[in-house]
């Protein structure tokens, strides 16, 4: 589960990670109040207005702006809230901005140079270890650094049973070229960051940039946090961090009906029981010359209710020109599923696209008979290839 920068920073701060302080705002007046409070609390004359969306690269897309006085705070917030922000990570349609983070300016001049680093903590599944990835090349597109100058990205493996050791934090600070107060502060930063990642059961904490300020403090300017959904039951208070406005509305609705749905770009809707069979179904659609419009796993019990919910979700997508239902009747009997399809069809009424149903397993023959005799615009098949060929036939 992705969360916003301001939420990620609040988590970091609660674990003792120094952050670029800020206050979230929904409108220009709130933004002005926030800026005044930041001036009071942190003596920050300038502030940055940062669009809060679940995607990185906001700076490049015009979603991060420096404001040098209160009028600029109001103006820049006005311009950013409501905008459709396009970044390298949003796709061409962009994402609508509903909130901004008003943050203290941490790039102030001082005794030494400011310096941007990259740091992330993530799970390396292959090694069963946590990894701290870090680089002197912070602030920029890390994928580009990885591609062009991979030797500038370093990795420190952490055994989850032992945790981060002091020497590892010092090694990282040393490899980042730090000394003196900044070196010491970086070791604290790394230790607190690892603790935050570990204690929240996260899949990823990415801080780009980590900043060394001109007075040698180390802090998180950005925070991209991915909480592990499978561990959310251990953190009931994190449920409220979810922002449904950032997620695909059809996927949210599917989640409410306990359906596992992922929208894709093709024109053949699919409804399948079991994730593996759903993947195989998408493959066979492609082999038959079609393109799947979605991934949809309706789970073990494919009854009239789930089939109906599945139809409703699939039919929300205007690209869908045919629907392929592929159910293996292992625990569920095929004739029950067939009856479910017929009932759902009759309840929804006029389904505007042809439906191909492939039922295999217990009572498959009876199921085919039910479908064939229903008088509905539903085609039945028992073999998967047969079903896929039917799909390409109805589409051509
Ligand atoms: P991203 O573009 O979505 O990764 O957003 P970031 O939070 O990383 O901000 C993008 C860039 O904005 C940073 O790399 C900085 O160059 C700039 N920026 C962020 N905070 C400040 C600040 O306090 N002062 C100034 N002058 N620039 C900032
Ligand atoms: Mn960033």
UniProtKB/TrEMBL annotation:
Its EC number is 6.2.1.5. Pathway: Carbohydrate metabolism; tricarboxylic acid cycle; succinate from succinyl-CoA (ligase route): step 1/1. Its cofactor is Mg(2+). Binds 1 Mg(2+) ion per subunit. Keywords: ATP-binding, Ligase, Magnesium, Metal-binding, Nucleotide-binding, Tricarboxylic acid cycle. Mg(2+) binds at residues 208, 222. Transmembrane segments: none annotated. Residues 271-388 form the ATP-citrate synthase/succinyl-CoA ligase C-terminal domain. InterPro entries: ATP-grasp_succ-CoA_synth-type, ATP_grasp_subdomain_1, Succ-CoA_synthase_bsu_CS, SUCC_ACL_C, Succ_CoA_ligase-like_bsu, Succinyl-CoA_synth-like. GO terms for biological process: succinyl-CoA metabolic process; tricarboxylic acid cycle. GO terms for molecular function: ATP binding; magnesium ion binding; succinate-CoA ligase (ADP-forming) activity; succinate-CoA ligase (GDP-forming) activity. It catalyses: succinate + ATP + CoA = succinyl-CoA + ADP + phosphate; GTP + succinate + CoA = succinyl-CoA + GDP + phosphate. It is an enzyme of class 6 (ligase). ATP binds at residues 50, 57-59, 106, 116. One of its GO terms (cellular component) is cytosol. Gene3D superfamilies: ATP-grasp fold, A domain, ATP-grasp fold, B domain, Succinyl-CoA synthetase domains. The keyword RNA-binding does not apply. Residues 2-210 form the ATP-grasp fold succinyl-CoA synthetase-type domain. NCBIfam families: PRK00696.1, sucCoAbeta. Heterotetramer of two alpha and two beta subunits. Succinyl-CoA synthetase functions in the citric acid cycle (TCA), coupling the hydrolysis of succinyl-CoA to the synthesis of either ATP or GTP and thus represents the only step of substrate-level phosphorylation in the TCA. The beta subunit provides nucleotide specificity of the enzyme and binds the substrate succinate, while the binding sites for coenzyme A and phosphate are found in the alpha subunit. Belongs to the succinate/malate CoA ligase beta subunit family. This is Succinate--CoA ligase [ADP-forming] subunit beta. It comes from Olivibacter domesticus (Pseudosphingobacterium domesticum). The lineage of its organism: Bacteria, Pseudomonadati, Bacteroidota, Sphingobacteriia, Sphingobacteriales.
């Amino acid at each position: 589960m992705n969360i916003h920068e301001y939420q990620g920073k609040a988590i970091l701060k609660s674990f003792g990670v120094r952050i670029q302080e800020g206050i979230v705002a929904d409108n220009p007046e709130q933004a002005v109040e926030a800026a005044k409070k930041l001036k009071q609390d942190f003596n920050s004359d300038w502030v940055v207005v940062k669009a809060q969306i679940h995607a990185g690269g906001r700076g490049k897309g015009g979603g991060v702006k420096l404001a040098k006085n209160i009028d600029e705070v109001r103006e820049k917030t006005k311009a950013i809230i409501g905008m459709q922000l396009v970044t390298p990570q949003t796709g061409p349609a962009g994402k609508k901005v509903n909130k901004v983070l008003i943050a203290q300016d941490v790039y102030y001049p001082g005794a030494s140079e400011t310096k941007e680093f990259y740091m992330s903590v993530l799970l390396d599944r292959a090694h069963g270890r946590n990894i701290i990835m870090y680089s002197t090349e912070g602030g920029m597109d890390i994928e580009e650094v990885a591609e062009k100058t991979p030797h500038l990205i370093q990795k420190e493996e952490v055994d989850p049973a032992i945790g981060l050791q002091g020497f590892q934090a010092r090694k990282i600070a040393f490899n980042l070229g730090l000394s003196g107060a900044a070196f010491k502060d970086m070791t604290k930063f790394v230790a607190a960051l690892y603790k935050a990642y570990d204690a929240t059961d996260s899949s990823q904490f990415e801080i780009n940039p980590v900043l060394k300020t001109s007075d040698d403090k180390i802090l998180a300017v950005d925070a991209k946090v991915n909480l592990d959904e499978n561990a959310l039951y251990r953190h009931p208070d994190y449920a409220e961090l979810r922002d449904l406005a950032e997620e695909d509305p059809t996927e949210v609705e599917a989640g409410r009906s306990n359906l596992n749905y992922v929208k894709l770009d093709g024109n053949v809707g699919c409804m399948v029981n079991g994730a593996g069979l759903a993947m195989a179904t998408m493959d066979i659609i492609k082999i038959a010359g079609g393109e799947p419009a979605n991934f949809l796993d309706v789970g073990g019990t494919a009854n009239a209710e789930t089939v109906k919910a599945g139809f409703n979700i699939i039919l929300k997508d205007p690209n869908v020109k045919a629907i392929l239902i592929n159910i293996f009747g292992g625990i569920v009997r095929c004739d029950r599923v067939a009856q479910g399809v017929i009932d759902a069809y009759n309840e929804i009424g006029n389904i505007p696209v042809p439906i191909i149903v492939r039922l295999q397993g217990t009572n498959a023959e009876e199921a085919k008979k039910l479908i064939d005799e229903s008088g509905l615009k539903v085609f039945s098949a028992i073999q998967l290839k047969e079903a896929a060929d039917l799909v390409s036939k109805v589409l051509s």
